[in-house]
Design brief:
globular, 19% helix, alpha+beta, 6 strands
Length: 194
């Protein structure tokens, strides 16, 4: 990252992240945390439909193909859509820690244009953990896992109780998620982003 803020630098007392023993195995598809999530949910017709796979340690990979609905300038991905893809990818790392966390800060570098039709390959990892704070990085590459870097990000996630979502979300969606008989889907509905 160029010129990242001091808020994204882990303190000297930060510790190395530890993958939770129940985290998905390396190579395993993590799947959507919530059906209606714009980033990963299959229930969003114009969403990113990000596909995320667990990596080694506390890392993962993700990919999505930029569609016409994701345009900003003619034929190019909107920067906000690219930032959303990075945020969703970084947020998915918290599943490997088995922590409920929200984005506290996200800094993004837009390195090169991303044309419609491009598949963006993202790689992310947790760099450090300090108390409730989780420090992470990600990069998105054009058309191949080793393609040219198009976007990069650093993020700070903050661990929160599930009440962060249940106290502030829209009541009908909260009730539907809480009543899901699938315990894993019920838990994952509340795992990322404010």
């Amino acid at each position: 990252m160029s010129g990242s803020s001091a808020a994204l630098q882990p303190p000297a007392s930060a510790r190395k992240p530890v993958r939770h023993p129940d985290a998905p195995a390396p190579g395993e598809l993590i799947g959507a945390h919530y059906e209606h999530c714009f980033g990963c949910g299959p229930g969003q017709s114009h969403g990113l439909h990000l596909e995320v796979r667990a990596g080694e340690g506390v890392s993962l990979t993700a990919e999505f193909t930029v569609r016409a609905a994701h345009q900003g300038a003619p034929g190019l991905a909107h920067g906000g859509v690219l930032a959303t893809a990075l945020d969703e990818t970084l947020g998915s790392l918290n599943w490997l820690l088995r922590k409920i966390a929200v984005t506290g800060r996200l800094e993004t570098d837009f390195v090169r244009p991303v044309p419609v039709g491009t598949t963006l390959y993202l790689a992310a990892e947790v760099a450090a953990v300090s108390g409730r704070k989780i420090y992470s990085t990600a990069a998105g590459r054009l058309d191949a896992p080793d393609g040219p870097v198009a976007v990069r990000a650093e993020a700070l996630f903050v661990e929160v109780p599930v009440e962060h979502f249940t106290d502030h979300g829209r009541e009908e969606e909260i009730k539907a998620a809480m009543n899901d008989p699938d315990q894993i889907r019920r838990t994952r509905a509340f795992e990322v982003n404010p």
